[in-house]
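Reviewers asked in the last cycle whether our approach scales beyond single polypeptides. To address this, we selected a multi-component target totalling 1522 residues and predicted its structure end to end. The input consisted of the following lines:
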Amino acid sequence: MQQSLAMRTRLGVPLICAALMLLPAIVNASAWNNPYPRRDEGRNILYSAFAERPNHLDPARSYSTNESVFTGQIYEPPLQYHYLKRPYELVPLTAEEMPRATYYDAAGRRLPADADAAAIAHTVYEIRVRPGIRYQPHPALARDESGALRYARMSPEDLAEIFTLADFAATGTRELVAADYVHQIKRLAHPQLHSPILGVMRKYIVGLDALSATLEQALAQGAGDGFLDLERLDLAGARVVDRYRYRIEVNGKYPQMLYWLAMPFFAPVPPEADRFYAQPGMAARNLSLDWYPIGTGPYLLAVNNPNRQMVLARNPNFRGEPYPSAGQPEDAARGLLADAGRTMPFIDRAVYSLETEDIPYWNKFLQGYYDSSGVQSDSFDQAIRVSGGGDATLTDEMRAQGIRLLTAVATSVFYVGFNMLDAVVGGQAERARKLRHAIAIAVDYEEYISIFLNERGVPAQGPVPPGIFGHREGRLGINPYVYDWVDGGPRRKPIASAHRLLAEAGYPDGIDSRTGQPLSLYFDVTASGPDDKARLDWWRKQFRKLGIRLVVRNTLYNRFQEKMRKGTAQLFLWGWGADYPDPENFLFLLDGRNSKVGAGGVNAANYDDPEFNRLFDRMKHMDNGPARQQTIDAMIEIVQRDAPWLWGLHPKQFGLYHQWHSNTKPHQMANNTLKYQRVDADLRSRLRAQWNPPRLWPLWVGGLVLVGGLVPGAWSYWRKEHLAQP
Amino acid sequence: MTAYLVRRLLYAIPILIGVNLITFTLFFVVNTPDDMAHLHLGVKHVTPEAIVNWKRERGYDQPLVYNAGGEGIAKLTETILFNKSISLFAFRFGASDTGRDIGYDIRQRMWPSLAIALPTFLVGILVNITFAMLLAFFRATYIDVWGVVLCVIMMSISTLFYIIAGQYLIGKLWHLVPISGYDTGVDAIKFLVLPVLIGVVHGIGSGTRWYRTIFLEEINKDYVRTARAKGLSELRVLFRHVLQNALIPILTGAVVVIPSLFMGSLIMEAFFGIPGLGSYTINAINQQDFAVVRAMVFLGAVLYILGLIMTDIAYTLADPRVRFE
Amino acid sequence: MPFTPVVLTTDALLFLLLAAAGGYAWYARRREHLRAPWRQVARSRLGMMAAVVLCAYLLVGIADSFHLRLRIAQPDAQAAVRYSPEVLSLLDLATGHLRDAVEKTYSAPFAATLYVRETVTTPDGTVARVYPRLRHAATHLDDPERQRLGDVLATAATGALQGIALWALAVALLLYGLARSGRARWRTVLRQVARDELAVPWRLMLITAGVLIAGAFMLANLSFTYHVFGTDKVGQDVFYQTVKSIRTGLLIGTLTTLVMLPFAVLLGLVAGYFGRWVDDLIQYLYTTLNSIPGVLLIAAGILSLQVYMANHPQRFESFAESADLRLLFLCLILGVTSWTGLCRLLRGETLKLRELEYVQAATAFGVRHLGILTRHLLPNVMHVVFITVALDFSGLVLAEAVLSYVGIGVDPSMNSWGNMINQARLEMAREPVVWWSLLAAFTFMFALVLAANLLADAIRDAFDPRLRSVP
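The resulting structure, written as structure tokens, was:
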């Protein structure tokens, strides 16, 4: 029997280990599944997630939405969007007032505000920065007793004990001045920063092209050991007037410039920071502006661990900004004006956790560990019920949890392009055009939206999405080549008319009447997710309706881009999200001078129509009004006729917010929205505990099964030992 | 023995050169530096100058293997192959394609990987050997038969199923542990319980069966019969003789894995949001960050070779009959 | 001809594998020492049951490996004969009713309506949210709520009866054959089989086969009027996908083994036996390959294949061919990453064996190396080969699912259990849960892997001489 005991203790080891591992969880908190430290319970913290680690936090480089979540709160460009007003409206942020444009002709004479766009050679914007704004505490601005910068000349030994920015003992601050803004505009031309907007801005900002060339040359000659001193170089298009004023000069008339001034690309960067990070040894410790930003905004980046967690904390030097006191009529009823005039920001910290998978994200949101969610299609069945009129409402269980739903149509478009250079689907010939129209009718985007997006989208009628000037609702807005207006709504033309068009194009029932071979088309996509097989099957199904065989070529993203550059694709799936709320930002996707092949632009369909190009040039400079609407209507009519895209869909964004999370209003353009938001941490703590009671019975059952499994074994051993030896 | 070890260590060099050549071929022939530049500079507004710049900064502007423009030895040294390989051998991984220092990231991410892999490995071995001994002890009885059937059944279930079911039941329905995430220090434990449990349960089927085979092989040897004939009890035979002699195959299987534990588990880390080297690698594959993938391949190779040498040492220590000349 | 045959590369390799197995069987038929262990396999009850199940999978896989292209209608008599570009298999032809029966989106097994509600305008003008009827399932029922259960049972029973009838016929033929070969009266044979008195467990095998045949007929019969396992997100029949995935699973498991086995066995034995520089060279080879983490090697391989296919689209005329090539390439890469493990094990085993007296003695007596390798070493390491191969087969079928998750598995548009499970991962987050894809893929995969493991156990018991005499 002694041996049998020995046996049991050996078995016991893993059990004890398991119990020991569970112990801290038991001791820790009432809610066992709380992923956050217990000490943070009840604090004024916002919890959110990020799916993809941000790559760049340098304002000259950062361009993607997952980065602007952070950069938007840290950097302050001169302008911002009004949080509540619709349509989107620009208001001053660090500027004293909205900059006004003054126009000059080629000879330098000042022109009146209503001058003809063709006569305008330069436009000058003068921006006055508000005095008294100070930077966040940062070692780059720290000064010693003598007033000199403390960390400007670091030796390798000084850096030996430094691993993160927090390891610097001292920090400092200083007032924001106009020169910081000018410095950042010069940085856009820096060859080592690869600013994504340099290609666009060099066309507009006077002298930026020349500065970029000078810097390239200096770099090629190895000047300054890699550090290029921008302060010694001049940029004609961006000049300091005095301590608080600077001027931006652009070529011609470019009213869209103001929108750019609301993006972090035009936020201030102190030259001290550039010098600080350029010191030898900094880059090897990942100490760079790309990782440790410095700004004047309401928050600073307190923890930067893109592998796990990013934390924004209140900037102690922030001047305070009043919550807007005017909005849309319905905003007051929704409680969005309750804080009117109070000093922002309201939240102390914002914790963003890395969450790459949708399912854990959604489940944690339901458990109350994320304050908001903008989840993907599959989880939405649980949350959203689409009512008769296509309006979404919350399901009863979501309402029981007190969750609110906010929807908005995104200012973006997901389209299928036809390569207009292709011999079969491209070109302006009637045959190809009819083929494109037939396909446009056959691809049932209503079904796509219902299956894959759970009604979270609207089929597009043209390139301009709702919410952008130039988009037309109702009967005038439909694409007459694909839809009929029936009973007060658009209805897709019957498949029979697609068959007819296909026959007219010379492919009766999908058979090429010239060669007698069935028609095969190639479709380039970049698919890798688990849901993609279903999507690709769906696409094949749509073309099968016409008897056309769709060969899906699933390629890697970089190969896909190469195909686009070379123009070797036939059909391709792509999307575009607005940089700013102006129709120019969408219509230029079809501008012939902007085509991918040849010009390296963003017109991936390589569509080129002289009349469209002419109208585009006119529309670009016009102010929003009936004349501009008329021009846009004419342009959309042209592209609807030529159908270089299947217009695709505009996704709807559904945001879900817990009841303790207030002052939320979806905004497609603004990215500095954190300062407006509020959380009720006590309510959150209460509800979390209520929603997450640990279920202990599985542990008892598991234990019983283990013990139960041992009993017959022990009995059998006993029998064997006693019966084997007579 | 010492001479042998030295020989093995020297021998690691050609292996690493071979690894480097294979990965170089796979990564640079497949994706030209132009492709990578396009991928990393983003979708919107990319100019050709920006691409040239990007390549120059990362040292991708040289020819791949042979520099016809160079002089003498420079024909071979001023190439991507030579420069990138040399820095790898010095364990200078350089910056990733997104600009982060890879060595720094690896040092940071190593520990979460180890925090999952080591408990999974140790608890797994313990549980598997325990179960295998049980089955071997009850061999040719219904416990053995059903135990093996259970093992086979557990082996036939996909990892993904264990993970999906585990997260669904334990995390979502029962609220026992956080569904995913990670923290440092003691707080990490609540995040580790579920992945470790799933890792162990997933390994039970094949592990137990494997050890059982080894034990049974030993049990049927003559010395065991002799021991039993001496009147030793079955348990003593199992622990004293069988377990000791079965150590060699167990060691070969286990020791080689130990250094590679640093590399982490791809699937587990991705599903549970553990910021280890496994998820680092998977991100790098998805984002086609070849600098990172190359570094990880090299690191994996180094650790593997380390494991092999350790295995050989373990061999000689456990069984003097194995000779190396 | 109304069709033209198409031989995909993987088809050819599968047939090659079958031919090799057949050749080995013919060769072993006359050699008692080779036959003996197999005879013992045939006596294993679990093993033979598993073999019957595996045979069923294999039959489906083979039926899915005869590919052809159908002729399409000609506009006039003079035109050249044309064939549809769509490559179909015999299995596709047999299950055409499932391939074309596409619904809009999810529907549960045996459902008469979709799984999600839709807004419809009723004739009297009101708008209602209803579950719409399916287009291809239960269309013959007027009131599915009441009639469905009865109809399902009746259809299933008809199918089962048909299956049993066929099975009875097969049993009769088998008994006749047994009687002829054993020179006994078939009545005697029937009694022996019924009482399980023969060495081979015929009774168990026949019962297994009977259950399988009856089940297959039941499912087939039901599949004409219902979606037996429901439909997926885009309304395709899950039963069809599951059955189509069988070929993918079988090929991954077998072709990979076919690729790696010769290298692993030869190199492992040679390295362990000769030692010195041969050992060093082979160790160098496999250590180098093995030290590259497998997933990374597979990822790099698949990426390079994708690039190759993107650059030469004209070589892969049809979708089937490019997906097939990717499958083949996956098998090759898996082979490259998995042979090293077996090779290392064999080397270790040989190292141990060559120190044993009888090998030393053989060397002393001047037996040639080749003789020692094939006579003394190979038979003594075969059990390692079989055990590893068996473990590998299941491991490979399972690995496919994991690789699909990482995005480097079979083509995402190809039917495979990995792709199905991967997709079902998202479905688990739906409310109410869509469970049938996961369950169907999981069950079929599980049955295959389980059967393979059980048969492998039987083979191991038979081949491992040290395990033959369990007390």
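DSSP finds 20 helices and 27 strands in chain A. We regard this as preliminary and will revisit it once experimental data from Aim 1 are available.
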